[in-house]
Amino acid sequence: MKLLLQNGRVLDPTTGELVHKDILIEGQTIAKIGTDLNAADPETEVIDLSGKFISAGLIDMHVHLREPGFEQKETIETGTRAAARGGFTTVACMPNTRPVIDSAELVKEVIAKAEQAGYARVLPYGAITVREAGQELTDMAAMKEAGIIGVTDDGVGVQSSKMMKEAMRKAHSLGLPVVAHCEDDSLAKGGCVHDGQFAARFRLKGIPNEAEAVHVGRDILLAEDIGVHYHVCHISAAQSVRLVREAKARGQKVTAEVTPHHLLLCDEDIPEPNAMWKMNPPLRSSRDREALIEGLKDGTIDIIATDHAPHTLEEKAAGMERAPFGIVGLETAFPLLYTHLVLRGVLTLAELVDKMTRKPAEIFGLPYGVLAEGKPADLTVIDLEEERTIDPDTFLSKGRNTPFAGWRVKGWPVLTIMNGKITWNQADTALTFGE
């Protein structure tokens, strides 16, 4: 199959400016990038992009697809459809399902279901410990052979330092990164929001910054001598950013991700005890949010990941104290970040795209994330001028749990291509976000 994208705009790699280019895709590969390209083959499908922006396919290294076990919240099919609509061609799914993805058999099952759905490439993480119970290491070697890209007990922190050190040694021997949900239960247990202004006002038990930072510091020390690639999930606290920055300054292989919601919101923005604003880690203080932005800009924080975490509306209706943590993010990440970071001068478009494409591919050793001839034909086409209102009722994800409902944002993905195949085309569907 051949596909020719005409009259699009791409980022010039030297200047960061948008320049007009055509892109020819042959099979699963970008065959040619140039100007005034024509379809020599009459069977080539031609799409006129009318000046829309073309990026390498977006990559999200932290999503929850919920299957197996929580299909009422999300399935691999619905989650990857939402990913494609959001411009993502590759997503990495977390293992805290039921059963936990802690065996080669379950890894293979997830990959097979994603390939059958065909909307986005799914790269599973395997659990660090059996059932994420923190007591026994999983068979990481078998899971690596089955296709995992790293190990994590996301959703819970590995509480035992001894267990984490053993896990790091094993992962390093296999060339696998350790991807850590950093949370000390002795400090965080029972909390539902950040230990700050909002918690005090509504007399809610708070989760202090130290609950995260203590584990970040511990794990950096454990990983230092071993040499394992250590990656911090959904970093949220200023102290954690400082610890990662210091580790990088020493040359240690430490990386970190940050979510759109932690970049754009803080606990002072929460209007009332509404569980649509409940996530883990929680929204921190404005000072923490500023530290995250600074860390993203100076390279301390490497990438942006959504931590897409769908729940049912019934679960979220249980209230701030009893509802589960988490919000969805795949379908809204790029327009939110483009509107509130790029258009406000916090990041350039090139910087934002880099942290959602090339950089995650680089730090996790993936062959994607680059828009160039000879590279995999993973592309995202974005209308930078299109402005819409976020309407959860129109999400393709089963999850409707977002604090961003009603926000009006620009920069919507309109066409997603994975391995040369169109996985989302706004022009071909009647499903649109609220105007």
TrEMBL record:
The active site is at 307. Zn(2+) 1 binds at residues 62, 64, 154, 307. It catalyses: (S)-dihydroorotate + H2O = N-carbamoyl-L-aspartate + H(+). GO terms for biological process: 'de novo' UMP biosynthetic process; purine nucleobase catabolic process. SUPFAM superfamilies: Composite domain of metallo-dependent hydrolases (SSF51338), Metallo-dependent hydrolases (SSF51556). Residues 51-238 form the Dihydroorotase catalytic domain. It is an enzyme of class 3 (hydrolase). Substrate binds at residues 64-66, 96, 280, 311, 325-326. Its cofactor is Zn(2+). HAMAP family: PyrC_classI_B. PANTHER family: ALLANTOINASE. This is Dihydroorotase. It comes from Lihuaxuella thermophila. The lineage of its organism: Bacteria, Bacillati, Bacillota, Bacilli, Bacillales.
